[in-house]
Amino acid sequence: MSTAAAPVTTIAMDDLPSLIGTELGPTAWRDVTQEDVDTFADVTGDHQWIHIDPERAAEGPFGQTIAHGFLTLSLVSVLIGGLLEVTGSSLTVNYGLNKVRFPAPVPVGTAVRATGVLTSVEEITGGLQGIVNLTIERDGGTKPVCVAEVVFRYYA
Questions:
Q1: DSSP assigned state of 6
Q2: How far is it, in rounded angstroms, from Cα 84 to Cα 52?
Q3: In degrees rounded to 5, what are phi and psi of residue 50?
Q4: Which residues 6+ apart lie within 8 Å of 16 measured at CB?
Q5: 134 with 116: CB under 8 angstroms?
Q6: Burial 55-94 (b: 16+ CB within 10 A, else e)
Q7: pTM to 2 decimals?
Q8: What is the pLDDT along the chain (156 residues), one digit of tens a residue?
Q9: What residue spans of the chain are helical by DSSP H?
Q10: Terminal Cα distance for the chain, rounded
Q11: Residue 53 phi, psi (nearest 5)
C-alpha cells in the first residue's frame, strides 16, 4: 500500500466555511474482504455471482469477485470520519448524496481509502450543511472506484 494516511482535519463547527476548497486526506487504507462482501450480499439480498462466487467469478469479466458498488458507497461514513472531525457539533447527520459514480470495480482482497474536498457550507436551521466531493480509490488502481458528492449536516 502506498503513502500513509494524513491526520484527520479537526475544525470547530463555526470555522467550517474556512475549509471550503481544502483537500482532505487521504484516509487510512481499509481492506475489503470476501466476508464483507458476503455479509453485504446477505443484508441486501444481492447475491450476484460476481460478488459471492469466487470460482465462477474467476472466469468472469473481472477475474475474481468484486465488491458491490453500494458496499463501496456504504464505506463513505467510516472513510469520511478519517478525513474530517467537526467539533462543537452535537450531532452529525448523513443527509444524502447529490451524485455518485463507480468508475472502477473493487476486487475483493484490495484496500480502499478516500480523499475529499469540502465544496460548500451553508447555514441550516440549527446548524450547517456541508458538501464534500469524495473520491475513493483502491490500492494499485488507476481509476477511482467511487466518486460522490456527500451532504452532511452538523447540528449545534
A1: P
A2: 33
A3: -65, -15
A4: 86, 118, 121, 128, 130, 154
A5: yes
A6: eebeeeeeebbbbbbebbbebbeebbebbbebeebeebee
A7: 0.94
A8: 667 899 999 999 999 999 999 999 999 999 999 999 999 999 999 999 999 999 999 999 999 999 999 999 999 999 999 999 999 999 999 999 999 999 999 999 999 999 999 999 999 999 999 999 999 999 999 999 999 999 999 999
A9: 34-44, 49-52, 54-58, 69-74, 76-80
A10: 38
A11: -120, 90
**Residue 78 near residue 54 (C-beta atoms within 8 A):** no
C-alpha cell at 84: 474530517
pLDDT at 2: 60
Helices and strands in the chain: count of H runs, count of E runs: 5, 8
